[in-house]
Amino acid sequence: MKKISIFTALLTMTVLLFSCKQAQDIKAFTEANYSLQGVEDVKLNGIDLEDRLQTKRNLSYNEQDSLLNAITNNSLQVSAVMALYVDLQDQTEERALTLTKLKWLLLVNGEEALTGTINRDIVLQDGLNTVPFNTPVQLTENDGQPNYTGLSRLITLIGQQRDIRQHVTFQIKPTVQTPVGNIESPSFITVMKPAEVAVSNGETQ
């Protein structure tokens, strides 16, 4: 929380001399609540994962070998459409914020697994934002070495056809456009935590 507050103050100070309105927009978005509402049309190196989960079809041996080779050669690519909800605390007027880059991080049962960067402008507004992207995927590292533990857990969950939402955490680190240059958030922001387990009466616990 302290790091985010420093980030907010830094962004606000850099634009105060240029545009009071933009400073207010930046402050509003850095204090907003973010939640991932869903991810659709997920394709990993062209393989439609959403279709596989719905039809309960496992990856073929050729597809498994292809993905393993892509991981080894650091050429894994994911495309999808992300539904990101932004809840501004100040909703007295229409606001927008331009991101020039968005780093993301996926954790499985608390273990860092995959990371990547969306390198294109993204304009965020209050409410639901639809963000299509196509980005390289990399394994996170541990002491400079690829960390296969998180990826192994993710593959196991998919292979068991389990609801991975109960096991994954999704985080983002935005780079914000300002009149004096781009400024990156000093820390990741959690936008999705492991889903609560549904009980028989339709409520959550």
UniProtKB/TrEMBL annotation:
<protein>
    <recommendedName>
        <fullName>Lipoprotein</fullName>
    </recommendedName>
</protein>
<keyword id="KW-0732">Signal</keyword>
<feature type="signal peptide">
    <location>
        <begin position="1"/>
        <end position="23"/>
    </location>
</feature>
